[in-house]
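Practice problem 4.
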């Protein structure tokens, strides 16, 4: 019943309410944005005309170490161990997901297999030969009709699951049997992070939830400002130094103490115009180097924020809503228009801009956008909305190869155990 009421309220406000910029609820936020003297915008122009810059510059990354960790709480994967042979060696098949417009779901990678889900919410564990070890469904007949989409997190021998219909539960990785199950008031719309005996996630009401890993009981929750807009992309969380930092649908970034649930700091990145003018606001995942938080959005803003205080170090005019990658002191990001940016993380200065959509005709590239990318030993692997993967050298930015992956939706690339994986609708493709 709560879900139906929530849906009704959302539709009501979308159709009947207007958010007045003079209303008190937005006033303080806009004043802060206008008077924050510490923000330095590297580019002041409102309308940017992007072109390649320093395209012949070559990087020397020989001193950068390969990152062998996969699920870090800082979302900072850096250079990963993948040589890039790009030979298909397997498909992990599942029934096609329905009612989706993007594949932003991440499989769980184990030493001896993969875990994913199908259109009815069944959890499937595969071995390394793409064979199903077990398949379990923990939904009622009526819940299956809602076509739940799942998010996973491994906790020892247990798999923690949250979904798009407000359910969260724990299963045994070896058997798939249920440990415990609970329900939230509203569906979840974030990745999951854990710290000690707690997990953290954000629901569609912009509420950060903290649950006990052992039984799913709620420790505390923190409601941030609700925009009455159903976000089209997942909110992001990172955990560092006893604080969980997360984004919400209106661009607020909030740091919260993991034990008490009290706010450490909060910064707005958008004025009320985001509600009045743009129902398609998208923000990238947050990443951190341990001292600074980096993220961007599709409103031409790339941020560097001090982790301890929440103050803004710099903002650059870059239009991107996909997760950046930090390699040493250099940030890699790709704009919605297909330009690869290399940015100095300390000052925000652009080092190089390379056009990765160079091979697209002008008319076609207007309808193509990047989905996500990872960086291997020597190359960058970018998936696009037309089901292709662009491989480019990270030292010079030159395109090496364009691989056709799917005729439809495709996920961002994932690297695990010197293999590269892509989720298509109906299978996970493995490359060696």
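Answer key:
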């Amino acid at each position: 019943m709560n879900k139906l009421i929530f849906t009704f309220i959302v539709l009501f406000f979308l159709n009947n309410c207007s958010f007045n910029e003079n209303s008190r609820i937005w006033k303080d936020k806009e004043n802060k944005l206008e008077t924050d003297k510490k923000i330095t915008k590297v580019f002041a122009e409102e309308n940017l005309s992007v072109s390649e810059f320093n395209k012949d510059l070559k990087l020397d990354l020989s001193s950068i170490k390969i990152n062998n960790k996969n699920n870090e709480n800082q979302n900072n994967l850096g250079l990963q161990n993948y040589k890039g042979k790009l030979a298909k060696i397997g498909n992990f098949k599942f029934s096609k997901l329905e009612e989706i417009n993007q594949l932003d779901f991440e499989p769980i990678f184990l030493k001896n297999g993969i875990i994913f889900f199908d259109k009815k919410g069944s959890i499937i564990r595969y071995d390394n030969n793409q064979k199903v070890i077990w398949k379990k469904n923990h939904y009622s007949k009526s819940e299956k009709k809602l076509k739940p989409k799942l998010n996973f997190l491994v906790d020892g021998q247990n798999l923690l699951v949250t979904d798009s219909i407000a359910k969260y539960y724990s299963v045994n990785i070896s058997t798939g049997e249920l440990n415990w199950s609970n329900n939230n008031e509203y569906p979840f719309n974030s990745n999951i992070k854990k710290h000690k005996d707690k997990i953290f996630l954000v629901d569609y009401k912009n509420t950060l939830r903290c649950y006990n890993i052992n039984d799913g009981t709620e420790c505390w929750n923190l409601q941030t400002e609700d925009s009455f807009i159903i976000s089209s992309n997942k909110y992001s969380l990172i955990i560092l130094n006893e604080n969980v930092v997360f984004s919400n649908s209106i661009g607020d970034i909030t740091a919260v103490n993991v034990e008490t649930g009290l706010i450490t700091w909060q910064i707005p990145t958008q004025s009320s115009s985001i509600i009045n003018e743009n129902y398609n606001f998208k923000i990238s995942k947050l990443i951190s180097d341990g001292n600074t938080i980096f993220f961007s959005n599709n409103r031409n803003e790339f941020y560097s924020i001090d982790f301890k205080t929440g103050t803004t170090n710099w903002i650059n005019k870059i239009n991107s809503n996909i997760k950046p990658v930090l390699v040493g002191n250099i940030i890699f990001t790709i704009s919605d228009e297909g330009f690869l940016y290399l940015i100095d993380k300390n000052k925000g200065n652009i080092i190089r801009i390379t056009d990765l959509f160079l091979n697209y005709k002008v008319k076609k590239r207007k309808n193509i956008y990047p989905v996500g990318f990872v960086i291997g030993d020597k190359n960058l692997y970018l998936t696009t909305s037309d089901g292709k993967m662009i491989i480019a050298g990270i030292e010079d930015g030159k395109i090496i190869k364009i691989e056709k992956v799917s005729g439809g939706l495709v996920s961002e690339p994932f690297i695990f155990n010197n293999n590269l994986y892509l989720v298509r609708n109906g299978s996970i493709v493995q490359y060696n």
